[in-house]
């Protein structure tokens, strides 16, 4: 999506996007004034050590600056998932004007979300995760994933096949206030997981990709998925709800081999 489209999406959602652009300056020499004019002041550069971190940072920054000049950075919606640290993941997403759901801009965001979700084989994704601060979530639990789970895991987690579901401006209502603990991961915190409490049963209501009213009562693992994605719309990550002692690098054992 080009800058014009993003500008339109943000106007539709009454959101704003702040951009900053800085250029590095290069020190080429020095001069001092004299009565006869200017005299060049020599500048001596020490030999770089084998571990010259500071020099490497300057070189990389300058190369990145040149790259941005040749190839401008892409604009949201991204074909990748934003990672923790990106301000968009900690922002309150804006409501979508229902009249704009059928617009090419909003449909483009939804299409990108689904494409990224399926490519990464994840079960849910929110618009902020592709860089767009709008209240849109998508989820899907295909047959293929269900077949990869053991019968015991299916029963324990409450797994069930779910078709693609899109919710625009979703609201959540808790149906069963009991919480269950399971390990959770997130594409925006790549490579890590933790135990997170979630409500057993919830109801989500909103609009679908056709701007039609929809309501869904769900329990088990799909309920966990929708709660996880709804958190993204409010600038929350599972890091804010997890048992910190259970936070692990998924590949920690590999690092010891």
Automatic annotation (TrEMBL):
Gene3D superfamilies: Peptide deformylase
InterPro entries: Peptide_deformylase (IPR023635), Peptide_deformylase_sf (IPR036821)
GO biological process per UniProt: translation
GO molecular function: metal ion binding; peptide deformylase activity
Domain of life (superkingdom): Eukaryota
EC code: 3.5.1.88
Catalytic activity: N-terminal N-formyl-L-methionyl-[peptide] + H2O = N-terminal L-methionyl-[peptide] + formate
Keywords from the UniProt entry: Hydrolase, Metal-binding, Protein biosynthesis
Cellular compartments per GO CC: mitochondrion
SUPFAM superfamilies in the cross-refs: Peptide deformylase
NCBIfam families: PRK00150.1-3
Function statement: Removes the formyl group from the N-terminal Met of newly synthesized proteins.
Protein family membership: Belongs to the polypeptide deformylase family.
Protein name: Peptide deformylase
Gene coding for it: pdf
């Amino acid at each position: 999506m080009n800058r014009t489209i993003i500008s339109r999406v943000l106007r539709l959602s009454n959101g704003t996007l702040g951009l900053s652009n800085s250029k590095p300056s290069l020190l080429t020499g020095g001069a001092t004034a004299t009565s006869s004019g200017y005299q060049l002041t020599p500048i001596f550069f020490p030999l770089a050590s084998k571990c010259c971190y500071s020099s490497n940072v300057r070189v990389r920054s300058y190369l990145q600056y040149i790259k941005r000049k040749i190839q401008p950075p892409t604009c949201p919606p991204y074909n990748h998932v934003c990672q923790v640290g990106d301000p968009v993941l900690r922002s309150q997403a804006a409501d979508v004007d229902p009249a704009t759901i059928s617009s090419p801009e909003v449909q483009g965001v939804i299409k990108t979300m689904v494409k990224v979700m399926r490519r990464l084989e994840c079960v849910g994704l929110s618009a902020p995760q592709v860089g767009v601060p709008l209240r849109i979530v998508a989820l899907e639990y295909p047959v293929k994933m269900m077949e990869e789970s053991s019968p015991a895991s299916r029963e324990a987690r409450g797994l069930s096949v779910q078709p693609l579901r899109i919710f625009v401006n979703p609201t959540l209502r808790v149906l069963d206030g009991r919480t269950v603990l399971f390990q959770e991961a997130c594409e925006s915190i790549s490579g890590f997981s933790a135990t997170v409490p979630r409500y057993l049963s919830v109801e989500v209501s909103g609009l679908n990709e056709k701007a039609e009213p929809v309501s869904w009562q769900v329990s088990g693992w799909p309920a966990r998925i929708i709660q996880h994605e709804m958190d993204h719309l409010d600038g929350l990550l599972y890091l804010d709800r997890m048992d910190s002692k259970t936070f692990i690098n998924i590949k920690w054992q590999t690092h010891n081999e």
